[in-house]
Amino acid sequence: MALSVLSRKEKERVIRRLLIQAPPGEFVNAFDDLCLLIRDEKLMHHQGECAGHQHCQKYSVPLSIDGNAVLLSHHNVIGDYRFFDYQSKLSFKFDLLQNQLKDIQSHGIIRNETEYLRTVVLCALKLYVNDHYPTGNCNVLRKTIKSKEFLIACIEDHNYETGDCWNGLWKSKWIFQVNPFLTQVTGRIFVQAHYFRCVNLHVEISKDLKESLEVVNQAQLALSFARLVEEQENKFQAAVLEELQELSNEALRRILRRDLPVTRTLIDWQRILSDLNLVMYPKLGYVIYSRSVLCNWII
């Protein structure tokens, strides 16, 4: 159906759905392409703002405020398209299309034992991230749910190489309740990559985890938590790399094989597979030491 025969609400729904589907690092590109089709600046700006807010939460878009990394997620949303940063104690709106902070305001926090624990956990997590991610970012948030306090640790690293026709993102989230003796850590590791040279290849991999940690004191809990994250993420990476190495050329050929297009143009599958191998396998070695990504190995 042509866009011209759609109602305004239907257009809004289609635009928002298409923008939300944009892979990590490609939101602005998708927005610019849609602008050429829709030709309605006011409509696109409004939908771009709404979808951009959701995109930031979905992919933990990183910012820098006063030299500190801030990861946007639904955990630090405070309503009216605003985010909150515990480090700078500021709330703000973020315009993804302009890559700009807007309407910055001070926002107080309650200084208690949980806040001190959050700071200690953040320091331990930063040491881990700096050691394993060349350009990684991390953040630790507080949240109170039914009078129970939780800490939420987020990690993000990406490599967006649009000029080389690929983008990749690694992110993880870890949540645990502030308990006196034993706490359960719930985690989720997520990887997404998009390769669009010769083929349009999307890959998404994720894993959910649950582990328990003993609580002795704040310093012990922070160090134990950082070791837990390191152990689980290393296991996840090793498993993914093992699966990737087992993916033979024959398997790739079965995935990519399709009938000749209507143009009757011959597709050189051998060349495509060769190109994929050139991108994939030479990068496997250093990714074991540098998790800058499955952004680098997956494609």
From TrEMBL:
InterPro entries: CapZ_alpha (IPR002189), CapZ_alpha/beta (IPR037282), CapZ_alpha/beta_2 (IPR042276), CapZ_alpha_1 (IPR042489), F-actin_cap_asu_CS (IPR017865). This is F-actin-capping protein subunit alpha. It comes from Oryctolagus cuniculus (Rabbit). Keywords: Actin capping, Actin-binding, Phosphoprotein. Heterodimer of an alpha and a beta subunit. PROSITE patterns: F_ACTIN_CAPPING_A_1 (PS00748). F-actin-capping proteins bind in a Ca(2+)-independent manner to the fast growing ends of actin filaments (barbed end) thereby blocking the exchange of subunits at these ends. Unlike other capping proteins (such as gelsolin and severin), these proteins do not sever actin filaments. May play a role in the morphogenesis of spermatid. One of its GO terms (molecular function) is actin filament binding. Belongs to the F-actin-capping protein alpha subunit family. Coiled coil: none annotated. Gene3D superfamilies: F-actin capping protein, alpha subunit, F-actin capping protein, beta subunit. It comes from the Eukaryota. GO terms for cellular component: cortical cytoskeleton; F-actin capping protein complex; membrane; sperm head. GO terms for biological process: actin filament organization; barbed-end actin filament capping; cytoplasm organization; spermatid development.
